[in-house]
Structures are given as C-alpha cells and as structure tokens.
Amino acid sequence: GLLLLAVSTLGFGLSRSVLGWLAWRCVQGAATAPIYTSVNCILAATFRGPGEFEQANSWQTTAAYMGYTVGPIFGGFLFQFGGFLAPFALSAICHLLFVLLTDGLGDTLPYDKCDSDSPSASSTSAT
User: Fold this and answer.
1) What pLDDT is attached to residue 115?
2) How far is CA 56 from CA 32, 45, 66, 88, in A?
C-alpha cells in the first residue's frame, strides 16, 4: 500500500493534465484503502484491554485530522518555494522512508493477531 501510495503521489505531482490528476488520485485512493485497514487491525491487535482500543483509535484519528489541518498550510509553503511538484515529492519521499523504516519491523508487529474475535472488535460492535 505505502509503496503504491508513494509512486502515485509522485505521479500526481509529475502529471500535467486533469485526466492525469484524476487517474493518479484514483490510484492513491486504492493504495490508501489497505493502509487504513491495516492500521485499525494493528491497533485492535495491540490494544486489547478495556477501553485501550478506543483510546488508541481516538489518538490515531486526532493525528490524522491534525494532518488534514496542517497539511494544506505546509503544502502551500512548499508550493510557494518549490513549485507544484515539491509537496508531492516530499510526501512520496516520506512514504518511501516509512516503508524502509517499517520493513524491518515485520516480525515485531502483531499482524498474526488480527482476527475477528479480539476483545476490541467485539466491544466496538456492542450498542
């Protein structure tokens, strides 16, 4: 997911047509979907105690919305001083760095514990 997101983000920045931008945004959306699913799965597998998943999920959501708030300001700054490609190139570089940093963590993350019978999964469906 992250590698495709990096490539599609750079592709968006290099594109010069509306059709190209739309195509790359579709690829970005397809690349992002498994990332959000994986994040929630890892949170549910890691934070299994009473209320832990809910708290971790709220912090993750807060961080995401802080990015939505600060991102346009930072992107505008990069655009002003580096042109149209700058914010997309920096984003692609950050995605690639994250891929490299997390590639070595494969055995330390609880991917194999992501299942439907986790306490967190059942607590979020209760009303």
Assistant:
1) 54
2) 20, 11, 15, 29
Distances (CA, A) of 43 to 5, 56, 119: 21, 7, 12
Nearest Cα to 105, choosing from 47, 38, 27? 38
pTM: 0.67
Place of tokens 């579709």: 26
Find the DSSP H helices in the chain: 2-14, 18-46, 52-82, 85-103, 119-125
Burial of 49 (0-12, 13-18, 19+ CB in 10 A): exposed
- Angle at which helix 2-14 crosses helix 18-46, to 10 degrees, equals 160
CA-to-CA separations, 76 to 21, 87, 88, in angstroms, rounded: 18, 8, 11
By the 8 A CB rule, do 43 and 60 touch?
yes
Beta strands in 1-127 (DSSP E): none
Tens digit of each residue's pLDDT (9 = 90 or more) over 84-127: 999 999 999 998 998 888 776 655 555 555 555 544 444 444 43
